[in-house]
Hints:
Helix content: 40-55%
Distance between the termini: 33 Å
Number of helices: 21
Largest sheet: 8 strands, parallel, barrel
Number of strands: 10
Structural class: alpha/beta
Amino acid sequence: PPRVAPAVTATIVDGTLTDQFILPRLLPDPHLALAHRSTAQLLTSALVYKLCKQQWLVRIAPSLINLASFLRLSWLVNAVTRRTFFAQFCAGETEPEIVRTMRTLKAHGIGSILDVSIEADLGGDSKIPSDPAELRARQNVKADALAKEYERSIEMASQEPASFIALKVTGLASPELIYRLSLPYRPMRSAFVGADTDADGLLNYSEFKRCVLPAMPGADKVSSPSAVFGMVDTNNDGLVDWLDIEMALSISNVYARPLFMGKDGYGASSEADFEDYELLMGRLNALAEFAKTTDVRIMVDAEHSYFQPLIDHAALSLMAKFNKFQPSHPEHFQAPLIYNTYQMYIKDGLRKLKTDWERSHREGWAFGAKLVRGAYMFLERERATKMGYPSPINDTIEDTHDMYNAGIRFLLEKIAARQRETSSVVGATHGDSSPFAQQLQNPSLFVATHNANSIEYMIQQSRLLGIKPNSRTVMAGQLLGMHDDVSYTLGRDGYAIYKYVPYGPVGEVLPYLIRRAQENSSVLGTIQKEINNIKAELKRRIFNRRYRHERHQQPQQ
């Protein structure tokens, strides 16, 4: 029977009931995902999921790994991990293993996002030199080495058309640098919201001078606040919005950098920080240039909220450069090379998405957005409590679901509006059936989720808005080894579906694997579903084998 079942629903346009649509329902087929796997692989997967159900074990896993390292038993941990969690959630350690995984996925209609699963956080280096110059030099050598690994990732991804790589900015500079350069943004944003008493999103010079400017570390160095306001108020109307401030008072603007350089302490940056920032952007620009030549797209991953302002800044800077509209090409048909990631479990997530969309419109570049719920919820809440600031995470899971679906709807409506604009232009010159009418690529939405309801929502809203299943502007994705039944069903039915394909040395991807175990442990019902799917597949194989054996034993008539 078909695994995507129709459901009849009424279409409402501007409050008026119009006609009837047949909307697809997502009914994942586990057999599609499991049929090509060996019985040994299925048994390994079942073991991994059963271990994920043991929440006490998942909680103490980081401590056990640290203990093993202290006892010099990391080799044993790595050996066990390689045959269990690594085999389930990672593509391999060598290029042949990784490319083989990509091609297996492609054979089932699934694209790949290669992910060098090496993560960094504050205090991650246990051997910190006392000499600051030596520390900087070592951190930059490490960042250059990872940039080379990302270049290799791009080369591997280019072996399959329309592939992505995932990129973590924290690996390309020291986490402490990214943290320091991110610090001023939260007080600046809070000051803006506090000054906007009438909630119209606009500040005049007096409000800017009184509230926003003093929130910056180097405010005491400003001799002419009106000159700073003039730098922000580019249209000279006496009013600025948050986007004006964010675009003008950024660290990429050398004239604004003194505002980031306060006295030692909270939010203060130094000349050395800006030198390392330039090195970071140099690495990112070189990778984007290489990706452009190999036709590989880059997804900039979201990370911890205390790193995110600088990560967003870096991603938007790349997008403004590499997604820029070319005069020789209609803007609707220009595909983004760089995608930024938006965490919808963050209270400010939807506002950020809409602001960045508006920025792309003002600056003239193609907008590519990946929507995620978020992967650092426990850490974020724990840190907020410890540091004494409000948690950035939504109060309830329902708030996150609502915000996630609102983000999907927002971008789908933008895509549909662009499609209508494109159809009117292309139809007038080439006819409505022209293939050009199906090549809309700006904006582009990537729905990264394991929540089947959100994927079904994306499919149904796309149908209602007239966006084709094979649209090059709407994609979905899941992590390798998780919710494969959804991925393989979408691949079979012609949707643009991708898998995050992590790889790397086992010892270096352990933080990633721990997060996968934690994520699975937090949704016990989903784990049991995966186990039940594996049991059903094993039973199918046993009974099919027995049936074939019985048929073979029957005497010939």
